[in-house]
Automatic annotation (TrEMBL):
Designated name of the protein: M18 family aminopeptidase
Superkingdom field: Bacteria
Taxonomic path: Bacteria, Pseudomonadati, Pseudomonadota, Gammaproteobacteria, Cellvibrionales
Keywords assigned: Aminopeptidase, Hydrolase, Metal-binding, Metalloprotease, Protease, Zinc
CDD domains linked to this entry: M18_DAP
GO molecular function, one term: aminopeptidase activity
Gene Ontology CC annotation, any one: cytoplasm
Family that this chain belongs to: Belongs to the peptidase M18 family.
E.C. number(s) listed in UniProt: 3.4.11.-
Length: 433
Protein backbone atom coordinates (compact mmCIF):
# COMPACT_ATOMS: atom_id res chain seq x y z
CA UNK A 1 0.00 0.00 0.00
CA UNK A 2 2.95 2.37 -0.48
CA UNK A 3 2.98 2.61 -4.29
CA UNK A 4 0.06 4.63 -5.66
CA UNK A 5 1.34 4.27 -9.25
CA UNK A 6 1.34 0.46 -9.06
CA UNK A 7 -2.04 0.53 -7.32
CA UNK A 8 -3.60 2.60 -10.12
CA UNK A 9 -2.02 0.56 -12.90
CA UNK A 10 -3.47 -2.62 -11.40
CA UNK A 11 -6.82 -0.86 -10.98
CA UNK A 12 -6.88 0.01 -14.70
CA UNK A 13 -6.20 -3.63 -15.58
CA UNK A 14 -9.00 -4.75 -13.26
CA UNK A 15 -11.47 -2.35 -14.88
CA UNK A 16 -10.56 -3.47 -18.40
CA UNK A 17 -10.84 -7.15 -17.43
CA UNK A 18 -14.32 -6.68 -15.95
CA UNK A 19 -16.87 -5.61 -18.60
CA UNK A 20 -19.70 -7.44 -16.79
CA UNK A 21 -20.40 -8.60 -13.20
CA UNK A 22 -19.51 -12.14 -14.30
CA UNK A 23 -16.08 -11.03 -15.45
CA UNK A 24 -15.56 -8.84 -12.37
CA UNK A 25 -16.23 -11.78 -10.06
CA UNK A 26 -14.00 -14.06 -12.11
CA UNK A 27 -11.19 -11.48 -11.97
CA UNK A 28 -11.58 -11.09 -8.21
CA UNK A 29 -11.66 -14.87 -7.72
CA UNK A 30 -8.36 -15.21 -9.58
CA UNK A 31 -6.75 -12.56 -7.37
CA UNK A 32 -8.15 -14.12 -4.19
CA UNK A 33 -6.92 -17.59 -5.11
CA UNK A 34 -3.47 -16.18 -5.87
CA UNK A 35 -3.44 -14.65 -2.37
CA UNK A 36 -4.28 -17.97 -0.71
CA UNK A 37 -8.07 -17.70 -0.39
CA UNK A 38 -9.89 -21.03 -0.73
CA UNK A 39 -13.01 -21.27 -2.90
CA UNK A 40 -16.05 -22.75 -1.11
CA UNK A 41 -19.13 -24.39 -2.58
CA UNK A 42 -22.46 -23.56 -0.92
CA UNK A 43 -23.60 -27.14 -1.56
CA UNK A 44 -20.84 -28.57 0.64
CA UNK A 45 -20.29 -28.68 4.38
CA UNK A 46 -17.67 -26.10 5.27
CA UNK A 47 -14.69 -26.87 7.51
CA UNK A 48 -13.53 -23.39 8.47
CA UNK A 49 -10.29 -22.93 10.39
CA UNK A 50 -8.97 -20.04 12.49
CA UNK A 51 -6.73 -17.97 10.25
CA UNK A 52 -8.36 -19.43 7.14
CA UNK A 53 -9.30 -17.25 4.20
CA UNK A 54 -12.19 -18.19 1.92
CA UNK A 55 -14.59 -16.96 -0.70
CA UNK A 56 -17.90 -18.09 -2.17
CA UNK A 57 -19.50 -17.12 -5.48
CA UNK A 58 -23.20 -17.22 -6.32
CA UNK A 59 -24.58 -16.99 -9.88
CA UNK A 60 -21.10 -16.07 -11.08
CA UNK A 61 -21.96 -12.42 -10.43
CA UNK A 62 -21.82 -11.96 -6.63
CA UNK A 63 -19.02 -12.80 -4.23
CA UNK A 64 -18.43 -12.96 -0.50
CA UNK A 65 -14.80 -13.24 0.63
CA UNK A 66 -13.86 -13.56 4.28
CA UNK A 67 -11.07 -14.22 6.73
CA UNK A 68 -11.60 -16.27 9.89
CA UNK A 69 -9.49 -14.25 12.30
CA UNK A 70 -7.58 -15.68 15.21
CA UNK A 71 -9.36 -13.45 17.74
CA UNK A 72 -12.70 -14.26 19.40
CA UNK A 73 -15.45 -13.65 16.83
CA UNK A 74 -18.23 -13.18 19.37
CA UNK A 75 -16.26 -10.52 21.22
CA UNK A 76 -14.72 -8.78 18.24
CA UNK A 77 -17.34 -9.20 15.51
CA UNK A 78 -16.87 -8.72 11.80
CA UNK A 79 -15.41 -5.79 9.92
CA UNK A 80 -17.38 -5.76 6.68
CA UNK A 81 -17.06 -3.83 3.42
CA UNK A 82 -19.83 -3.92 0.81
CA UNK A 83 -19.86 -2.90 -2.85
CA UNK A 84 -21.68 -3.93 -6.02
CA UNK A 85 -20.51 -5.54 -9.24
CA UNK A 86 -23.12 -4.22 -11.68
CA UNK A 87 -23.28 -0.97 -13.66
CA UNK A 88 -25.91 0.55 -15.95
CA UNK A 89 -25.60 -0.79 -19.49
CA UNK A 90 -27.43 -2.06 -22.56
CA UNK A 91 -28.38 -5.75 -22.42
CA UNK A 92 -29.25 -7.81 -25.49
CA UNK A 93 -32.88 -8.94 -25.70
CA UNK A 94 -33.75 -12.68 -25.90
CA UNK A 95 -34.92 -12.44 -29.52
CA UNK A 96 -32.95 -9.40 -30.63
CA UNK A 97 -32.76 -9.74 -34.44
CA UNK A 98 -33.78 -6.67 -36.45
CA UNK A 99 -33.31 -6.58 -40.25
CA UNK A 100 -33.90 -3.14 -41.69
CA UNK A 101 -32.72 -1.54 -44.96
CA UNK A 102 -29.89 -4.03 -45.36
CA UNK A 103 -28.56 -3.59 -41.82
CA UNK A 104 -28.58 -6.22 -39.10
CA UNK A 105 -29.26 -4.77 -35.66
CA UNK A 106 -29.96 -6.23 -32.23
CA UNK A 107 -32.51 -4.88 -29.80
CA UNK A 108 -31.40 -3.98 -26.28
CA UNK A 109 -32.93 -3.31 -22.88
CA UNK A 110 -31.62 -0.55 -20.64
CA UNK A 111 -30.27 -1.99 -17.39
CA UNK A 112 -30.43 0.45 -14.48
CA UNK A 113 -30.48 4.23 -14.60
CA UNK A 114 -28.13 4.68 -17.52
CA UNK A 115 -27.19 8.09 -18.93
CA UNK A 116 -28.10 7.21 -22.52
CA UNK A 117 -26.81 10.00 -24.75
CA UNK A 118 -23.12 9.08 -24.29
CA UNK A 119 -23.80 5.60 -25.75
CA UNK A 120 -24.10 7.00 -29.27
CA UNK A 121 -21.11 6.83 -31.65
CA UNK A 122 -19.03 4.56 -29.39
CA UNK A 123 -17.10 1.46 -30.37
CA UNK A 124 -18.99 -1.29 -28.58
CA UNK A 125 -17.73 -4.70 -27.49
CA UNK A 126 -19.98 -7.49 -26.22
CA UNK A 127 -19.56 -9.58 -23.09
CA UNK A 128 -21.40 -11.74 -20.59
CA UNK A 129 -22.46 -15.32 -19.95
CA UNK A 130 -23.62 -17.79 -22.61
CA UNK A 131 -25.43 -21.07 -21.87
CA UNK A 132 -25.20 -23.78 -24.52
CA UNK A 133 -25.64 -27.45 -25.26
CA UNK A 134 -22.65 -29.44 -26.49
CA UNK A 135 -22.61 -32.31 -28.97
CA UNK A 136 -23.19 -34.83 -26.14
CA UNK A 137 -26.36 -33.03 -25.07
CA UNK A 138 -24.82 -31.62 -21.89
CA UNK A 139 -25.68 -28.10 -20.80
CA UNK A 140 -22.71 -25.83 -20.20
CA UNK A 141 -22.06 -22.16 -19.59
CA UNK A 142 -19.05 -19.98 -20.24
CA UNK A 143 -18.04 -16.34 -20.30
CA UNK A 144 -17.76 -14.47 -23.56
CA UNK A 145 -15.83 -11.26 -24.09
CA UNK A 146 -15.58 -9.85 -27.60
CA UNK A 147 -13.11 -7.05 -27.00
CA UNK A 148 -13.03 -5.75 -30.56
CA UNK A 149 -15.70 -3.25 -31.66
CA UNK A 150 -18.58 -5.31 -33.04
CA UNK A 151 -21.38 -2.78 -32.76
CA UNK A 152 -22.27 0.89 -32.63
CA UNK A 153 -25.28 3.16 -32.25
CA UNK A 154 -24.87 5.95 -34.82
CA UNK A 155 -26.31 9.36 -34.03
CA UNK A 156 -28.76 11.02 -36.38
CA UNK A 157 -26.98 13.79 -38.27
CA UNK A 158 -27.77 17.30 -37.07
CA UNK A 159 -28.87 18.16 -40.63
CA UNK A 160 -31.84 15.82 -40.08
CA UNK A 161 -32.58 17.06 -36.57
CA UNK A 162 -31.83 20.76 -36.32
CA UNK A 163 -33.03 20.90 -32.71
CA UNK A 164 -30.74 18.11 -31.55
CA UNK A 165 -28.59 20.37 -29.38
CA UNK A 166 -31.65 21.88 -27.74
CA UNK A 167 -34.14 19.11 -27.21
CA UNK A 168 -33.00 15.67 -28.35
CA UNK A 169 -34.37 12.90 -26.15
CA UNK A 170 -33.64 9.16 -26.35
CA UNK A 171 -36.37 6.58 -26.94
CA UNK A 172 -34.78 3.30 -25.79
CA UNK A 173 -37.00 1.12 -27.99
CA UNK A 174 -36.60 3.16 -31.16
CA UNK A 175 -33.19 4.82 -30.91
CA UNK A 176 -30.89 2.25 -29.25
CA UNK A 177 -30.85 -0.91 -31.43
CA UNK A 178 -27.19 -1.63 -32.09
CA UNK A 179 -25.88 -1.95 -35.66
CA UNK A 180 -23.80 -5.15 -35.98
CA UNK A 181 -23.33 -5.64 -39.71
CA UNK A 182 -24.59 -4.96 -43.24
CA UNK A 183 -26.28 -7.81 -45.06
CA UNK A 184 -29.32 -8.55 -47.19
CA UNK A 185 -29.53 -12.05 -45.68
CA UNK A 186 -31.31 -12.93 -42.46
CA UNK A 187 -28.93 -13.33 -39.53
CA UNK A 188 -29.26 -15.56 -36.47
CA UNK A 189 -27.77 -13.91 -33.39
CA UNK A 190 -27.28 -17.22 -31.59
CA UNK A 191 -25.36 -18.58 -34.59
CA UNK A 192 -23.09 -15.54 -34.44
CA UNK A 193 -22.52 -16.24 -30.75
CA UNK A 194 -21.51 -19.83 -31.53
CA UNK A 195 -18.93 -18.49 -33.99
CA UNK A 196 -17.63 -16.02 -31.40
CA UNK A 197 -17.32 -18.78 -28.78
CA UNK A 198 -15.41 -20.95 -31.23
CA UNK A 199 -13.03 -18.05 -31.87
CA UNK A 200 -12.40 -17.89 -28.12
CA UNK A 201 -11.64 -21.60 -27.90
CA UNK A 202 -15.07 -22.98 -26.94
CA UNK A 203 -15.38 -25.40 -29.84
CA UNK A 204 -18.06 -27.88 -28.81
CA UNK A 205 -21.15 -25.65 -29.04
CA UNK A 206 -24.04 -27.47 -30.67
CA UNK A 207 -26.79 -25.03 -29.70
CA UNK A 208 -26.71 -21.68 -27.92
CA UNK A 209 -29.59 -21.95 -25.44
CA UNK A 210 -29.57 -18.52 -23.84
CA UNK A 211 -27.36 -15.69 -22.69
CA UNK A 212 -26.94 -12.63 -20.49
CA UNK A 213 -24.93 -10.24 -22.65
CA UNK A 214 -24.15 -6.55 -22.40
CA UNK A 215 -22.59 -4.07 -24.77
CA UNK A 216 -19.73 -2.00 -23.41
CA UNK A 217 -17.34 0.73 -24.51
CA UNK A 218 -14.15 -0.75 -25.98
CA UNK A 219 -12.06 2.25 -24.91
CA UNK A 220 -9.70 1.16 -22.15
CA UNK A 221 -9.54 2.71 -18.71
CA UNK A 222 -6.89 5.42 -18.59
CA UNK A 223 -5.12 8.00 -16.48
CA UNK A 224 -6.16 11.33 -17.99
CA UNK A 225 -5.61 15.05 -17.45
CA UNK A 226 -2.60 17.26 -18.02
CA UNK A 227 -0.95 16.00 -14.86
CA UNK A 228 -2.66 12.61 -14.74
CA UNK A 229 -5.07 13.83 -12.08
CA UNK A 230 -7.96 11.59 -13.11
CA UNK A 231 -9.02 8.04 -13.91
CA UNK A 232 -11.48 7.70 -16.79
CA UNK A 233 -13.28 4.42 -17.33
CA UNK A 234 -16.55 2.66 -17.75
CA UNK A 235 -18.06 1.03 -14.65
CA UNK A 236 -16.20 3.08 -12.02
CA UNK A 237 -19.56 2.89 -10.29
CA UNK A 238 -18.99 0.51 -8.68
CA UNK A 239 -16.04 -1.62 -9.73
CA UNK A 240 -13.84 1.03 -8.17
CA UNK A 241 -15.19 0.07 -4.75
CA UNK A 242 -14.95 -3.66 -5.49
CA UNK A 243 -11.26 -3.22 -6.24
CA UNK A 244 -10.70 -1.00 -3.17
CA UNK A 245 -12.45 -3.51 -0.91
CA UNK A 246 -10.50 -6.44 -2.35
CA UNK A 247 -7.13 -4.72 -1.94
CA UNK A 248 -7.98 -3.79 1.65
CA UNK A 249 -9.04 -7.36 2.39
CA UNK A 250 -5.83 -8.79 0.93
CA UNK A 251 -3.81 -6.46 3.16
CA UNK A 252 -5.76 -7.05 6.40
CA UNK A 253 -4.06 -8.73 9.37
CA UNK A 254 -4.58 -12.30 10.52
CA UNK A 255 -6.31 -11.32 13.79
CA UNK A 256 -9.28 -9.77 12.02
CA UNK A 257 -12.62 -11.34 11.12
CA UNK A 258 -13.11 -9.60 7.80
CA UNK A 259 -15.79 -9.71 5.12
CA UNK A 260 -15.96 -8.34 1.59
CA UNK A 261 -19.34 -8.65 -0.12
CA UNK A 262 -19.77 -7.60 -3.75
CA UNK A 263 -23.40 -7.96 -4.80
CA UNK A 264 -24.99 -7.90 -8.23
CA UNK A 265 -28.22 -6.06 -9.12
CA UNK A 266 -27.72 -2.91 -7.02
CA UNK A 267 -28.55 -0.74 -10.02
CA UNK A 268 -32.00 -2.33 -10.33
CA UNK A 269 -32.99 -2.44 -6.66
CA UNK A 270 -30.94 -5.33 -5.21
CA UNK A 271 -33.98 -7.60 -4.83
CA UNK A 272 -32.67 -10.92 -6.13
CA UNK A 273 -31.03 -14.12 -4.95
CA UNK A 274 -27.62 -12.44 -5.31
CA UNK A 275 -28.55 -8.83 -4.53
CA UNK A 276 -28.10 -7.01 -1.24
CA UNK A 277 -31.80 -7.58 -0.46
CA UNK A 278 -31.28 -11.30 -0.99
CA UNK A 279 -30.05 -13.89 1.52
CA UNK A 280 -26.48 -14.46 0.33
CA UNK A 281 -24.49 -12.48 2.90
CA UNK A 282 -26.66 -13.49 5.84
CA UNK A 283 -26.44 -17.17 4.91
CA UNK A 284 -22.62 -16.97 4.80
CA UNK A 285 -22.49 -15.21 8.17
CA UNK A 286 -24.77 -17.83 9.74
CA UNK A 287 -22.48 -20.61 8.54
CA UNK A 288 -19.43 -18.83 9.95
CA UNK A 289 -21.06 -18.09 13.32
CA UNK A 290 -22.43 -21.61 13.71
CA UNK A 291 -25.72 -20.80 15.45
CA UNK A 292 -28.28 -18.04 15.85
CA UNK A 293 -27.06 -16.80 19.23
CA UNK A 294 -23.48 -16.67 17.99
CA UNK A 295 -24.58 -14.74 14.90
CA UNK A 296 -26.43 -12.13 16.96
CA UNK A 297 -23.59 -11.71 19.44
CA UNK A 298 -21.05 -11.29 16.66
CA UNK A 299 -23.34 -8.88 14.81
CA UNK A 300 -23.65 -6.65 17.87
CA UNK A 301 -19.86 -6.14 17.71
CA UNK A 302 -19.73 -5.71 13.93
CA UNK A 303 -19.80 -2.86 11.46
CA UNK A 304 -20.34 -2.54 7.72
CA UNK A 305 -18.84 0.11 5.46
CA UNK A 306 -20.83 0.34 2.25
CA UNK A 307 -18.53 1.72 -0.44
CA UNK A 308 -20.23 3.24 -3.48
CA UNK A 309 -19.27 6.26 -5.53
CA UNK A 310 -20.28 9.77 -4.46
CA UNK A 311 -21.17 12.77 -6.61
CA UNK A 312 -18.21 15.12 -6.94
CA UNK A 313 -19.11 18.77 -7.46
CA UNK A 314 -19.04 19.43 -11.22
CA UNK A 315 -17.43 22.81 -12.06
CA UNK A 316 -19.97 23.40 -14.86
CA UNK A 317 -22.99 22.46 -12.73
CA UNK A 318 -22.06 23.47 -9.20
CA UNK A 319 -25.61 24.71 -8.58
CA UNK A 320 -26.77 21.06 -8.47
CA UNK A 321 -25.02 20.64 -5.11
CA UNK A 322 -25.72 21.86 -1.61
CA UNK A 323 -23.35 24.80 -1.06
CA UNK A 324 -21.59 23.21 1.91
CA UNK A 325 -21.49 19.66 0.54
CA UNK A 326 -19.69 19.62 -2.81
CA UNK A 327 -16.99 16.92 -2.69
CA UNK A 328 -13.85 17.56 -4.74
CA UNK A 329 -11.99 14.90 -6.70
CA UNK A 330 -8.64 13.97 -5.10
CA UNK A 331 -9.67 15.54 -1.80
CA UNK A 332 -10.41 12.28 -0.01
CA UNK A 333 -13.28 9.81 0.51
CA UNK A 334 -16.81 11.08 1.05
CA UNK A 335 -19.17 10.28 3.93
CA UNK A 336 -22.67 10.05 2.44
CA UNK A 337 -25.54 11.32 4.63
CA UNK A 338 -29.31 11.31 4.25
CA UNK A 339 -31.82 11.82 7.06
CA UNK A 340 -34.42 9.74 5.19
CA UNK A 341 -32.18 6.67 5.37
CA UNK A 342 -31.26 6.52 1.70
CA UNK A 343 -27.81 6.17 3.22
CA UNK A 344 -27.28 4.27 6.48
CA UNK A 345 -24.68 6.62 7.99
CA UNK A 346 -25.21 7.76 11.57
CA UNK A 347 -23.09 9.90 13.89
CA UNK A 348 -21.48 6.85 15.54
CA UNK A 349 -20.30 5.28 12.31
CA UNK A 350 -19.25 8.55 10.67
CA UNK A 351 -17.28 9.58 13.76
CA UNK A 352 -15.38 6.31 13.72
CA UNK A 353 -14.58 6.77 10.03
CA UNK A 354 -13.40 10.35 10.60
CA UNK A 355 -11.04 9.15 13.31
CA UNK A 356 -9.68 6.40 11.05
CA UNK A 357 -9.08 8.96 8.31
CA UNK A 358 -7.25 11.23 10.76
CA UNK A 359 -5.07 8.32 11.92
CA UNK A 360 -4.16 7.53 8.30
CA UNK A 361 -3.62 11.22 7.42
CA UNK A 362 -6.43 11.08 4.87
CA UNK A 363 -8.76 14.05 4.37
CA UNK A 364 -12.46 13.26 4.51
CA UNK A 365 -15.47 14.99 2.90
CA UNK A 366 -19.25 14.92 3.31
CA UNK A 367 -22.10 14.71 0.83
CA UNK A 368 -25.74 15.64 1.37
CA UNK A 369 -28.05 16.00 -1.61
CA UNK A 370 -29.81 19.34 -2.08
CA UNK A 371 -32.98 19.52 0.02
CA UNK A 372 -35.07 20.07 -3.12
CA UNK A 373 -33.69 17.02 -4.95
CA UNK A 374 -34.27 13.28 -4.57
CA UNK A 375 -31.43 11.23 -3.12
CA UNK A 376 -30.08 8.01 -4.60
CA UNK A 377 -29.28 4.99 -2.47
CA UNK A 378 -27.03 1.94 -2.33
CA UNK A 379 -26.47 -1.36 -0.52
CA UNK A 380 -25.81 0.25 2.88
CA UNK A 381 -29.41 0.75 4.08
CA UNK A 382 -30.44 -2.63 2.68
CA UNK A 383 -27.69 -4.47 4.55
CA UNK A 384 -28.30 -2.51 7.73
CA UNK A 385 -32.01 -3.35 7.64
CA UNK A 386 -31.43 -7.03 6.89
CA UNK A 387 -28.71 -7.68 9.46
CA UNK A 388 -29.19 -4.97 12.08
CA UNK A 389 -25.52 -4.08 11.69
CA UNK A 390 -24.01 -0.66 12.31
CA UNK A 391 -23.39 0.78 8.85
CA UNK A 392 -21.65 3.68 7.16
CA UNK A 393 -22.02 4.80 3.54
CA UNK A 394 -18.90 6.24 1.92
CA UNK A 395 -17.55 6.60 -1.59
CA UNK A 396 -14.99 8.05 -3.94
CA UNK A 397 -16.13 11.35 -5.55
CA UNK A 398 -16.95 10.90 -9.23
CA UNK A 399 -18.13 12.83 -12.28
CA UNK A 400 -20.60 11.56 -14.91
CA UNK A 401 -21.99 8.76 -12.74
CA UNK A 402 -23.96 6.23 -14.83
CA UNK A 403 -22.44 7.47 -18.08
CA UNK A 404 -20.70 5.05 -20.42
CA UNK A 405 -17.44 6.63 -19.22
CA UNK A 406 -17.03 8.08 -15.74
CA UNK A 407 -14.29 10.13 -14.09
CA UNK A 408 -12.67 9.88 -10.66
CA UNK A 409 -9.56 11.32 -9.02
CA UNK A 410 -6.32 9.39 -9.36
CA UNK A 411 -5.58 9.63 -5.62
CA UNK A 412 -8.90 8.89 -3.94
CA UNK A 413 -9.13 5.12 -4.45
CA UNK A 414 -5.68 4.68 -2.92
CA UNK A 415 -6.63 6.89 0.03
CA UNK A 416 -9.86 5.04 0.73
CA UNK A 417 -8.05 1.71 0.58
CA UNK A 418 -5.65 2.86 3.31
CA UNK A 419 -8.59 3.74 5.55
CA UNK A 420 -10.36 0.42 4.88
CA UNK A 421 -7.18 -1.49 5.76
CA UNK A 422 -7.20 0.30 9.10
CA UNK A 423 -10.92 -0.43 9.53
CA UNK A 424 -10.41 -4.13 8.84
CA UNK A 425 -7.76 -4.20 11.58
CA UNK A 426 -9.84 -2.51 14.29
CA UNK A 427 -9.96 -4.54 17.51
CA UNK A 428 -12.72 -2.37 19.04
CA UNK A 429 -15.30 -0.23 17.31
CA UNK A 430 -15.68 2.23 20.15
CA UNK A 431 -19.24 3.09 19.11
CA UNK A 432 -22.52 2.50 20.92
CA UNK A 433 -24.63 -0.59 20.26
Amino acid sequence: MSDIHGFNEDLLRFLDASPTPFHAVETMAIALRAAGFEALDERDEWQLKPGGRYFVVRNGSSLVAFSCGESNLLQRGWRMVGAHTDSPNLKVKPTPELHRHGYFQVGVEVYGGALLNPWFDRDLGLAGRVNYENSQGDMRSCLLNITRPVGLIPSLAIHLDREANNSRTVNPQKDLPVVLLQSDEKQDFRALLAEALAAQGVADVATVLDYELSFYDCQNAAMVGWNGDFIASARLDNLLSCYIGMQALLTSDAQSHTILVCNDHEEVGSQSAVGAQGPMLESVLRRIAGDEVGLQRAMANSMMISADNAHGIHPNFSDRHDTNHGPLLNAGPVIKNNVNQRYATNSDTSSLFRRLCADEDVAVQSFVVRSDMACGSTVGPLTAAALGVKTLDVGVPTFAMHSIRELAGSQDAFKLTKVLVAFYGLAELGVAN
